[in-house]
Amino acid sequence: MAELSSRIGRAADRPLSGPAAYLLFVRMWSKSASQYRVSLLLTGFAQMLTTSLDLVALIVIYTQVQTLAGFTLPETLYLYGTTRLAFGASDLLASGVETLANTIRLGNFDLMLIRPAGSLAQALADQFTPKRFGKLVAPLATLGWALTTLSVQWTVLKALVCIGTVVCGFVIYCTLWVLTGCISFIAVDAQEMANTFTYGSEFATEYPLQIFGRPLGLALTFVLPVAFVTWQPSLYVLGHADPLGLPGFLRFASPVVAAIMSGLAALAWRVCVRHYRSTGS
Fold first, then answer.
1. Global confidence as pTM
2. For residues 61 and 73, what is the distance between their CA atoms, to the nearest angstrom?
3. CA atoms of 74 and 76, how far apart (whole Å)
4. What is each CA distance from 112 to 107, 120, 125, 194, in whole angstroms?
């Protein structure tokens, strides 16, 4: 904290940029967490086990069926690996806004506003902890296995789409963290409802989207566009036709959706901060 105060004090006439402020706060929280190394290792291991349990449940399903909605086990594990990796990275780097309700309730958001650093960068880095790296282990291993097992004729375009699936999924999930975090400016007790969109979206994208039916599938494409996290680009990589009958160009729309969602998240954050009236507002 002393280092943080010193750095911020020296920057009083020169506000920190968003990335610089984010990295500074991440470093501060990481140093704090590293003071209890055994606890950090144990909780990181627990995070890894928790994520792996979902993987075990998925594998158990495939002990009873050969395919799920036309997808084999390696194909479903590809969906699982890409979406879990994207979500795990967003949870590591951007889920600080999940604690925004308590930050506002306790009046600590006011402190973020008076520091010479962007409030969004501070909110994203709030309560950062390296233990969340544990959530990346199972998705990385699963995706690696799926890529070596799939019978896909790889091309340069398919490889780029595969990489873009994780990158764009990460951006889309980050925007969901910000957008749902903005709910705390209106209702500080609505965190469970916000988690429905974030964690619920992650769960929905682990499986072939068609198992949820056409109405929900369309809602997850055009209302809450998490189908662009992994489902749409994965249809192209895996060579599946869209069971919802949607146009083929949507397979490549994830970067556009990520850009639109980023703009909406930035706008929503600006509006909420502008209308913020301190604790109790």
1. 0.88
2. 9
3. 6
4. 10, 9, 12, 22
